[in-house]
Amino acid sequence: MIRLDNVTKIYKGETHAVDGVTLNIEKGEFVFLVGESGSGKSTMLRLLTAEEPATEGDVHVAGKDLSRISKWRVPYLRRNIGSVFQDFKLLPQKTVYENVAFALEVIGRPKNIISTQVPAILELVGLSHKQKSFPNELSGGEQQRVSIARAFVNRPLILLADEPTGNLDPNTAQEIMRLLDRINRTGTTVVMATHDQTIVDQMRRRVIALRAGQVVRDEQQGVYA
Amino acid sequence: MAGFLGRAGYFSRETWLNVRRNLTLTVAAILTVAVGVMLVGLGLMARSASANALGRWQGGVQFEIFLEPDIAGGQIDALGEELRNHPDIERIQFVTQDQAFALLEEMLVDEPELLAEVSVASLPPSYRVVPRIAEGEIIESLAAQFRQRPGVYSVETGRQQVDAIREWFNSFRWIVLLMSIVLAAASAMLIFNMIRVAMFARRREIEVMKLVGATNSFIRLPFILEGMLHGLAGGVVGAVAAGALRSHVEELFGRSEILAFFRSFTVTSGQFTTAIIATVLMGVVVGALGSAFAAGRFLDV
Questions:
Q1: Fewer beta carbons within 10 angstroms: which end of chain B, N or C?
Q2: What is the C-alpha separation between A119 and A128, in angstroms, rounded?
Q3: Nearest CA of chain A to the CA of B299: how many Å?
Q4: Which CATH number applies to B63-157?
């Protein structure tokens, strides 16, 4: 599902944000990317969504070679990838329902599909009763559930999460992890960058540790450190 | 089809939202477009008007061959025969001394003392000549051919006047064209900036759209439509202003004796419609260009 072949990303000719990384992630895996701030976790995720091109090496995502993909195909690649962020990136002037529907609307999904899929996904994340609320009326955990609903409503093959529990208290973080685990069980590949030691140690999934842009550890059922 | 209608709803909603958000900038852009395209409209109309007026004069008497007052009848007929058979001449009209006097009477109706000095016999009879091709050069060469004939007193052409008027209108058109280019550029830049502001205001939405895989053209379209809407609005306002100005000016020409000369500068309704349509289209094109550039640059990440 995801394959990196000796990938290097250099910013402005100096910093090696990602340095000669080779790895392979199979369909349906759940992978934690761990490491200090600046170790290259976020850059790695940005390489996968083609927000940044690799300086060297090949990045393959969902069967596409991103170094060869033409610019106009990138949006279609992203429809196979759901993204979740620490700061949720919800649109404040739209309701919960509209935030999720927006993701389908802007890729041109027909109305009847939107009106069946949005309630279904809100049901899955447990927010059916908050459809008409605005993001500022929700708790952090609820907002993150909306953002996960938005990322998953189009049933992508891959879900990328950049510190999704970074702004949440431990109990709420647990809820979010249960949700991501459920999504993973539907066959979706989940890649999550995190600092949260408790969560990593508790889940016992594959852990890829980065330091200065290099993979220093790659363990199945690993722990944080 | 349902999908397309759904999208049409999305585009119109988003476009309208943008317009409402930047009302003052929107008005500024629309007015600049309006003034610019109004000038374009007026320029086009002035062009038609001058063409019409020149055409009218050229279609009328092009030059007149005045004969000596005491010319012999045989000479008049011979000259007439030659003119009629000349390949470059369409038709001729003979003006007798009596007719010439009648014309003079008309012209000097307010100055009977001047008229009293003139007798019918002292006036030259003339041939009014309409050439086949109404061009200054041809008229001039025809005039030259007949100027030296025996019995010919003088040949007068309207070329100088026609040329002067043509020149005046040409420079007027150039000035108008230049001004409208400057204003069109200014409007395009205003719209460019407006769209940039609009896109900046909505950068979070755009970020999310890109994140979930909206295509660039999908993201751009509401902004380009917005720019085109501004252009269209400006075009319509400009066209209305140009139309109002036209009827005002024509009324002025009709009323004022000083401006009576300009009465032949009228625009047919067909030409008016063409000018108005061109004016509105120009507005739309300016709006589309400004916004397309803005949308293209902002999204190119």
A1: N
A2: 7
A3: 12
A4: 3.30.70.3040
Q: Taking CB atoms and an 8 Å limit, are B212 and A76 in contact across chains?
A: no
Which of A37, A73, A3 has its CA nearest to residue A210?
Answer: A37
Of A67, A154, A45, A165, the closest CA to residue B213 belongs to A154
Nearest 5°: phi and psi at B152? -90, 125
CATH superfamily, domain at A1-80+156-225: P-loop containing nucleotide triphosphate hydrolases (3.40.50.300)
Task: State the amino acid at position A167 in one-letter form.
Answer: N
Among B207, B214, B218, the residue with its CB nearest the CB of A89 is B207
Cα B5 from Cα B3, distance rounded (Å): 5
**Which residues does B contribute to its contact with A (CB < 8 Å)?**
2-3, 6-7, 10, 204-205, 207-216, 218-219, 301
Closest partner CB to A110 (pick from B3, B204, B207): B3
All structural domains of chain A with their residue ranges: 1-80+156-225, 86-155
pTM, 2 dp? 0.69
Q: What is the dihedral of CA B105, B106, B108, B114, to 10 degrees?
A: 0
* Helices A96-105 & A111-124 angle (0-180, nearest 10): 130
Band (B68; pLDDT cuts 50, 70, 90): confident
Can you give the pLDDT at residue B161? 66
Over range B272-298, report the average pLDDT. Answer: 85
For chain B, give every residue range classified as CATH 3.30.70.3040: 63-157
pLDDT (tens place) for every residue of chain A, 225 residues total: 999 999 999 988 777 889 999 999 999 999 999 999 889 999 999 999 999 899 999 999 998 999 888 888 999 999 999 999 999 999 999 999 999 999 999 888 999 999 999 999 999 999 999 999 999 999 999 999 999 999 999 999 999 999 999 989 999 999 999 999 999 999 999 999 999 999 999 999 999 999 999 999 999 988 888
pLDDT at residue B5 greater than cutoff 80: no
Contact B210 A75 (CB under 8 A): yes
- Tokens 């979010």 map to which residue? A176
Q: What does the pLDDT read at residue A67?
A: 87
* Chain B interface includes A110 (CB < 8 A): yes
- Chain-centre distance for alpha carbon A92: 21
